[in-house]
């Protein structure tokens, strides 16, 4: 059973709890008092029995840790049919906004890139105008049977510009070819601070018509880990640069 505690409270609720404890002065914290102040015993019950000042120190420690290591910001990203009032942002809106605010480096990984130049226009503009580095990790059909899954097709229809050339990597098993494996991950990393992880390919249907689910994560520690995972594949020779 997962243990619960005050760390599950939002920052606002932690601040409210701290204020409530301050009003109690030297009194010990009681379960009834916590409930009267509007706090759930499932998260705050461990404070019961402590002097109010000691309980306040616990809450202050959680708040201080959160200041140093903020919680990740998570945003639901969606394509397709909605079942009611929307609680998400559309994939076709999130991607261009992500690309437009890139300042240093963008990593894009995906399985299908079909005539995606309109999707990557904002990214090309940032690469051209602001010197943003761009890396793609794509699936290559090693058998050669699917021409759309090739670097040539990618540079013809998804990145047709010649003023800026991104680095392009593919799974080294495609050189064998090993048809039993697929580079199927889909994500976008911007400046090692934001990551979009999504089911959506970089195609018109995936951006506008299919039912696709993703999450936009604003957390530098996590973004660096995801970026490092891709770089490790290149360093170990598991993904190769297209030349």
Write down the Rg. Answer: 24 Å
Percent range for helical residues?
A: 25-40%
Our measurement of the CA-to-CA distance between the termini, rounded to an integer number of angstroms, reads 52 Å
Cross-sheet strand order for the largest sheet:
2-1-8-7-6-3-4-5-9
Could you name the ranges where pLDDT drops below 50 across 5 or more consecutive residues?
none
Q: In terms of structural class, how would the helical and strand content be classed?
A: alpha/beta
Average per-residue pLDDT, rounded, comes to: 92
The main pleated sheet reads as: 9 strands, mixed
Tell me the fraction of residues in β-strands, as a range: 15-25%
Helix-strand sequence: HHHHEEHEHEHEEEHEHE
The shape is: elongated
DSSP helix count?
9
- The total strand number stands at 9
Q: Could you characterize the architecture of this molecule?
A:
- The protein is an alpha/beta fold and 243 residues long.
- Helix content is 38%, strand content 19%.
- The protein has nine helices and nine strands.
- The protein has helices at residues 11-23, 31-36, 41-44, 52-68, 91-100, 117-130, 151-158, 204-208, 220-235; strands spanning 73-79, 89-90, 105-110, 133-138, 167-171, 187-190, 194-198, 212-218, 239-241.
- A nine-stranded mixed sheet has the order 2-1-8-7-6-3-4-5-9, with helices on both faces.
- Helix 6 links the parallel strand 3 and strand 4 (133-138).
- Helix 1 (11-23) runs antiparallel to helix 4.
- The chain is elongated and about 75 Å long.
- The model has no long low-confidence stretch (mean pLDDT 92).
Compact description:
This protein is 38% helix and 19% strand. Helix 1 runs antiparallel to helix 4. The relative contact order is 0.14.
